[in-house]
Structure prediction request, 613 residues.
Amino acid sequence: MTVTGWLQIALFAAIVGALTRPLGGYLARVYAGERTPLRPLIAPVETALYRLAGIKPQTEQSWYGYAISFLVFHAAGIIALYGLLRLQSLLPLNPQAMTAVAPDLALNTAVSFVTNTSWQSYGGETTLSYLGQMAGITVQSFLSAASGMAVAIALIRGFARRRAATIGNFWVDLTRGTLYVLLPICIVAAFILIADGVPQTLAPSAEVTTLDGALQVIARGPVATQEAIKLLSGDGGGFFNANSAHPFENPTPLTNLAELVLIFALGAALTNCFGRMIGSERQGWILLCVMAILFGLGVSGLYSVESGANPALAAINVDQTPGLQQPGGNMEGKEVRFGIAGSALFADVSTASSDGAVNSMHDSFLPLSGGIFLANMMVDEVIVGAPGSGLYGMLLFCIVAVFLAGLMIGRTPEYVGKKIGSAEIKMTILALICIPAATLGLTAIACVVEPGLAGLGNAGPHGYSEILYAYTSAAATNGSAFAGLSSNAPFYNLTLALAMFVGRFVVIVPVLAVAGSLAAQPIVPQSAGSLPTDRALFVWFLLGVIVIVGGLTYLPALALGPIIDSLQMLGGTLY
Amino acid sequence: MLDIIMLALVIVCFALAAAYASLCERLLAPSAGKDASP
Prediction:
């Protein structure tokens, strides 16, 4: 580990911390329909869209109406994207003459991007036309992020409102999130990326003659615009197969830092937005504090594990000491321009946030690091998470935490002035249990059936980790790949699509139900018997709940994969 | 043919999700206002 490496991590954390309050305030104003600097420019477009779609922005919806709108919108999104991918060979903007995407892969990709997962069983530059990338992938990246934020805002309204029958209007929240938040930030981010060398062109791939006289095809395209929303949306689906490890997606350490900030910015800001909307910014800082501690543990662990020597290489006397010629540590699968710190930081941000973009190959990290990636995803995206999903995941854990505290002291659980009754607990548990059920159930099936085993690139615990990682990533709507697993086969395409569907829709329905149930309640003033949720004690209590719930659910699965893999590597056995 | 199967899968999954939302609504109704404390 080096001072420069730690400074990179500290700089990133400082930038995200500095952006949290202003961006959180902006989000709160946007979703309340208040005046913002961009309103004069965007309001006419917003109004025109409502007129065109026949939406009455003043009419609000019950949680059930909100949920049905959410489901209908995403069903239409999956069908539209599926159709686009299947018909791309007949459509314009296809200079490389890409053929139609296979049905199972098209379904997997459509579900993947509509659910904000961006699991990619394909290589973008060898599979999709420019139209597929722009009108398919990029559009869904915007819409899935905006809908995730809409759900989080609806849940916040549930906490903030008293005796209300409605939690907002899904179509209005979706439109505002897209027009006022995602689009402006992405325009600025795309220009920053272009300025640093990321291509943005509709020209076909370049054909060049190498020094050896061979012909080389260099893929390019409208990369910068897709890159900006890929990161901001918590989506992570790259234009190129190598994702942010590709020099056209992430050419320099500066773009690496910008990409990292884009991934975390909205998720962190939503905690402040939550605090503002319920009238106590301190409550938002408490949530961010819990996220920061979990993030700090993850990145410290990754950086220290990867900075150390690879025991398998040390056993055959490979020099791994840091020096002027090499950074030392485990550089397998990492880009030299990012080094150990830049790769470990990106990997932690990506798996914690549910973005799933990668600037290094996760399968090449040491087994213990693989365990950290899995643990990040297994806590249900609560470490900042994707825009919206991180916050509502964390709020679900807050409900569980105050419920457990209520059990301990024999009082009715309350959180930010709302009593947590049996209705909220039922819905919360339903939302929290479906992700592990999908992850572990599908992993178990894939480990024993022939089509599941056929995709393995490695045997033993490492191969098991590859399968576990795939389903964990899909159900947590992360989308990063461990690599090593050949997932472009009907079995994986369909079962991973199912995991993504469960991880998004089966979670969001009860989240909205909680929002509706809370909104209908009065706000109870704090009393001497209330558990204070704006103090340091609650930070540790909430951390304990997250770690224990995650630990109890997933520890056996982790023990069979990265933990055994690591122990066997120390004993000299590799897979 | 495969396209029809894939689209049917999508429609069935979303129909199930809508039924699930309806079930959640019914689960909420009788327990609204009930205390979750021991």
Q: What stands out?
A: Chain B touches chain A through 27 residues (CB under 8 Å). DSSP finds one helix and no strands in chain B.
